[in-house]
Amino acid sequence: MPPILASSCAVATTAAEARYRIDAPIAGRRGARVIALDDGAATIVRRAAQQTWNAARFFTLRVGGTAGASLMADDSPDLALHGTDGNESRLGDELADGDVVVMVATTDGNAAAASAIGRACFARGIMTAGLVLGERGAVGETVTALRPYARVLLVTGDDQDLVEVLTALRA
User: Fold this and answer.
1) Which superfamily, per CATH, for 29-168?
2) Which of 17, 33, 61, 151 might form a disulfide with 13, Cβ 3.0–4.6 angstroms?
3) pLDDT digits (tens, 9 = 90+) for 80-125
Protein backbone atom coordinates (compact mmCIF):
# COMPACT_ATOMS: atom_id res chain seq x y z
CA MET A 1 0.00 0.00 0.00
CA PRO A 2 1.48 3.37 -1.02
CA PRO A 3 1.98 5.99 1.70
CA ILE A 4 -0.60 8.78 2.08
CA LEU A 5 0.97 12.12 1.35
CA ALA A 6 0.38 14.93 3.83
CA SER A 7 -1.26 17.12 1.18
CA SER A 8 -3.74 14.41 0.11
CA CYS A 9 -5.75 14.51 3.33
CA ALA A 10 -7.58 17.60 4.61
CA VAL A 11 -6.81 16.65 8.21
CA ALA A 12 -3.10 16.21 7.53
CA THR A 13 -2.41 19.50 5.78
CA THR A 14 0.41 21.66 6.98
CA ALA A 15 -0.12 25.09 8.50
CA ALA A 16 1.24 26.64 5.30
CA GLU A 17 -1.33 24.75 3.18
CA ALA A 18 -4.19 25.38 5.62
CA ARG A 19 -3.98 29.16 5.24
CA TYR A 20 -5.41 28.78 1.70
CA ARG A 21 -8.44 26.82 2.91
CA ILE A 22 -11.77 28.62 2.72
CA ASP A 23 -13.65 28.03 5.95
CA ALA A 24 -16.51 30.46 5.38
CA PRO A 25 -19.92 28.84 4.89
CA ILE A 26 -21.37 28.90 1.39
CA ALA A 27 -23.83 31.77 1.17
CA GLY A 28 -27.37 31.18 0.01
CA ARG A 29 -28.77 32.62 -3.17
CA ARG A 30 -29.85 36.22 -3.13
CA GLY A 31 -33.09 35.61 -4.97
CA ALA A 32 -34.52 32.31 -6.12
CA ARG A 33 -37.94 32.67 -7.73
CA VAL A 34 -40.24 29.65 -7.93
CA ILE A 35 -43.17 29.97 -10.33
CA ALA A 36 -46.03 27.50 -10.69
CA LEU A 37 -47.18 27.38 -14.31
CA ASP A 38 -50.53 25.68 -13.69
CA ASP A 39 -53.04 24.79 -10.98
CA GLY A 40 -51.52 21.38 -10.23
CA ALA A 41 -48.09 22.95 -9.78
CA ALA A 42 -49.54 25.74 -7.62
CA THR A 43 -50.47 23.23 -4.92
CA ILE A 44 -46.92 21.85 -4.88
CA VAL A 45 -45.35 25.32 -4.83
CA ARG A 46 -47.59 26.50 -1.97
CA ARG A 47 -46.61 23.45 0.08
CA ALA A 48 -42.88 24.04 -0.54
CA ALA A 49 -43.27 27.74 0.35
CA GLN A 50 -44.26 26.80 3.90
CA GLN A 51 -40.70 25.68 4.64
CA THR A 52 -37.87 27.97 5.71
CA TRP A 53 -35.78 29.32 2.82
CA ASN A 54 -33.04 31.93 2.39
CA ALA A 55 -34.43 34.54 0.01
CA ALA A 56 -36.66 32.38 -2.19
CA ARG A 57 -40.04 33.73 -3.25
CA PHE A 58 -42.90 31.56 -4.46
CA PHE A 59 -45.51 32.53 -7.06
CA THR A 60 -48.45 31.31 -9.05
CA LEU A 61 -49.57 32.85 -12.33
CA ARG A 62 -52.60 35.10 -12.39
CA VAL A 63 -55.58 33.64 -14.24
CA GLY A 64 -55.34 34.57 -17.90
CA GLY A 65 -51.59 33.91 -18.08
CA THR A 66 -49.99 36.05 -20.78
CA ALA A 67 -53.24 37.63 -22.03
CA GLY A 68 -53.22 41.40 -21.61
CA ALA A 69 -49.76 41.53 -20.04
CA SER A 70 -47.65 44.62 -20.71
CA LEU A 71 -44.31 44.12 -22.45
CA MET A 72 -40.88 44.34 -20.86
CA ALA A 73 -37.80 45.77 -22.58
CA ASP A 74 -36.99 42.37 -24.15
CA ASP A 75 -40.53 42.21 -25.66
CA SER A 76 -41.59 39.37 -23.37
CA PRO A 77 -44.84 39.81 -21.43
CA ASP A 78 -44.55 41.26 -17.93
CA LEU A 79 -46.72 38.62 -16.30
CA ALA A 80 -48.78 39.25 -13.19
CA LEU A 81 -47.72 36.94 -10.36
CA HIS A 82 -49.48 36.05 -7.12
CA GLY A 83 -47.13 35.42 -4.23
CA THR A 84 -47.95 32.56 -1.91
CA ASP A 85 -47.72 35.18 0.85
CA GLY A 86 -50.73 37.01 -0.67
CA ASN A 87 -48.81 39.80 -2.39
CA GLU A 88 -49.01 40.55 -6.09
CA SER A 89 -45.98 41.28 -8.20
CA ARG A 90 -44.82 41.59 -11.80
CA LEU A 91 -42.36 39.23 -13.45
CA GLY A 92 -40.02 42.09 -14.40
CA ASP A 93 -39.78 43.28 -10.80
CA GLU A 94 -39.05 39.80 -9.50
CA LEU A 95 -36.37 39.14 -12.11
CA ALA A 96 -34.59 42.38 -11.18
CA ASP A 97 -33.69 40.82 -7.81
CA GLY A 98 -33.58 37.16 -8.85
CA ASP A 99 -30.61 35.00 -9.74
CA VAL A 100 -32.41 31.72 -10.50
CA VAL A 101 -35.94 30.88 -11.60
CA VAL A 102 -37.51 27.47 -11.09
CA MET A 103 -40.60 26.85 -13.21
CA VAL A 104 -42.86 24.09 -11.89
CA ALA A 105 -45.45 22.42 -14.11
CA THR A 106 -47.65 19.36 -14.32
CA THR A 107 -49.31 17.85 -17.36
CA ASP A 108 -51.34 21.05 -17.68
CA GLY A 109 -48.25 23.26 -17.97
CA ASN A 110 -48.74 26.71 -19.49
CA ALA A 111 -46.49 26.72 -22.59
CA ALA A 112 -47.01 30.44 -23.32
CA ALA A 113 -46.04 31.43 -19.78
CA ALA A 114 -43.03 29.08 -19.78
CA SER A 115 -41.86 30.68 -23.01
CA ALA A 116 -42.36 34.23 -21.72
CA ILE A 117 -40.54 33.54 -18.45
CA GLY A 118 -37.75 31.68 -20.24
CA ARG A 119 -37.17 34.49 -22.75
CA ALA A 120 -37.13 37.11 -19.98
CA CYS A 121 -34.61 35.09 -17.95
CA PHE A 122 -32.43 34.48 -21.00
CA ALA A 123 -32.34 38.21 -21.78
CA ARG A 124 -31.15 38.92 -18.22
CA GLY A 125 -28.71 36.01 -17.92
CA ILE A 126 -30.72 34.38 -15.13
CA MET A 127 -30.39 30.63 -14.74
CA THR A 128 -33.62 28.69 -15.17
CA ALA A 129 -34.67 25.25 -14.08
CA GLY A 130 -37.81 23.31 -14.90
CA LEU A 131 -39.52 20.72 -12.75
CA VAL A 132 -42.30 18.73 -14.43
CA LEU A 133 -44.43 16.49 -12.23
CA GLY A 134 -46.54 13.73 -13.70
CA GLU A 135 -46.49 10.45 -15.53
CA ARG A 136 -43.75 10.38 -18.17
CA GLY A 137 -46.20 9.60 -20.97
CA ALA A 138 -48.45 12.54 -20.10
CA VAL A 139 -45.91 15.36 -19.74
CA GLY A 140 -44.52 15.47 -23.28
CA GLU A 141 -46.05 18.81 -24.26
CA THR A 142 -44.99 20.45 -21.02
CA VAL A 143 -41.42 19.18 -21.37
CA THR A 144 -41.33 20.43 -24.96
CA ALA A 145 -42.45 23.90 -23.80
CA LEU A 146 -39.82 24.10 -21.05
CA ARG A 147 -36.87 22.48 -22.85
CA PRO A 148 -35.65 25.56 -24.78
CA TYR A 149 -35.59 27.71 -21.65
CA ALA A 150 -34.58 25.48 -18.74
CA ARG A 151 -30.88 24.74 -18.31
CA VAL A 152 -31.88 22.03 -15.86
CA LEU A 153 -35.03 20.03 -16.59
CA LEU A 154 -36.27 17.33 -14.22
CA VAL A 155 -39.23 15.09 -15.00
CA THR A 156 -40.44 13.34 -11.87
CA GLY A 157 -43.41 11.83 -10.14
CA ASP A 158 -42.34 12.87 -6.63
CA ASP A 159 -43.67 16.19 -5.25
CA GLN A 160 -40.78 16.28 -2.75
CA ASP A 161 -38.27 16.77 -5.59
CA LEU A 162 -39.06 20.51 -5.66
CA VAL A 163 -37.80 20.83 -2.09
CA GLU A 164 -34.71 18.79 -3.00
CA VAL A 165 -33.95 21.01 -6.02
CA LEU A 166 -34.39 24.19 -3.98
CA THR A 167 -32.16 22.82 -1.23
CA ALA A 168 -29.46 22.00 -3.80
CA LEU A 169 -29.74 25.54 -5.18
CA ARG A 170 -29.41 26.98 -1.66
CA ALA A 171 -32.71 28.81 -2.20
Assistant:
1) Tubulin/FtsZ, GTPase domain (3.40.50.1440)
2) 17
3) 899 999 999 999 999 998 899 999 998 777 888 888 899 899 989 9
